[in-house]
Amino acid sequence: MSSGQPENNPSPPGTTVPRILVAEDDPLARDVLSRLLTGWGYEVLQAEDGEQAWEVLREPSAPRLAVLDWVMPRLDGLEVCRRVREAVAEPPYLILLTGRRSPEDVVAGLEAGADEYLSKPVDSDELRARVRAACRVVELQGRLSERVRDLEAALARERRLQALLPICAWCRKVRNDQNYWQRVEEYLSEYAAVRFSHGICPDCLRAVQDSLEEEAEPPGPPAPAP
Questions:
Q1: Residue 173 and residue 29: Cα distance in Å, rounded?
Q2: What is the rounded distance in angstroms from the CA atom of residue 134 to the CA atom of residue 114?
Q3: Which of 21, 134, 174, 226 sits between 20 and 30 A of 144, alpha carbons compared?
Q4: What domains does the chain contain, in order, with CATH numbers?
């Protein structure tokens, strides 16, 4: 397995270069595909058979897009697709390559878990267009997943705020989920995304003013001697 370096990066500056796995047992075909994708600005990982492709795709840092040949030793492309769909929580976008063109073969590939189906020999313009479309789908899936995580975190914070909250009757601190006592404003800032600005309420203002006036009053005359 090897990695190609991107050229003519199609991504805007500061964004991540898309990574693509190319799984093809034919060295010449694998090299041609890798050169095309690398030339279009993608980072390419290569796998020589289906087992190697499966090992890459099951990793947490796996590429979000894979181009798989149907016929490969050890594991074929269909079996790789099936394993990915069954075992990977957020499966990558899978493009299946094959010389088989019958409707039954197309259906078999899609039912195995492939997202796209390309016939060999691969036309470079069609490959480029489909890879671009796949990258858009992957980007959208990433945004949706991030949004779902944000919503789940918000729901978790809301559940904490709706639960019974222990509060100290003396110092008014509250106990969080880690059994740690903290000030109310700290707790709300952490779990409810609330920001505080400090001020003084009218009752406290009057109390402070009264205290200052008492301190400013001159002492009375000394008491007469008995």
A1: 67
A2: 12
A3: 21
A4: 3-146 (3.40.50.2300), 164-213 (no CATH)
pTM of the model: 0.59
Distances (CA, A) of 156 to 144, 152, 178, 191, 209: 18, 6, 15, 9, 43
Please, is 134 exposed, middle or buried when counting C-beta atoms within 10 Å of its C-beta (0-12, 13-18, 19+)? buried
- pLDDT per residue as tens digits for the range 65-123: 999 999 898 889 899 999 998 888 888 899 998 887 778 888 888 888 888 888 888 88
Specify the residue for token string 């991504």.
Answer: 11
- What is the structure's pLDDT at 7? 43
Strand pairing report for 93-98 and 116-119: parallel
Look at residue 10 in the predicted model and tell me its pLDDT. Answer: 52
Closest CA to 43 of 70, 86, 3: 3
Query: Quick check: 14 pLDDT over 60?
Result: no
Cα–Cα distance for residue pair 74/48, rounded to 1 Å:
10
3-class DSSP assignment, residue 110:
helix
Structure token digits, residue 68: 């798989």
pLDDT band at 226 (very low <50, low <70, confident <90, very high): low
Beta carbons within 10 angstroms of residue 110's beta carbon = 15
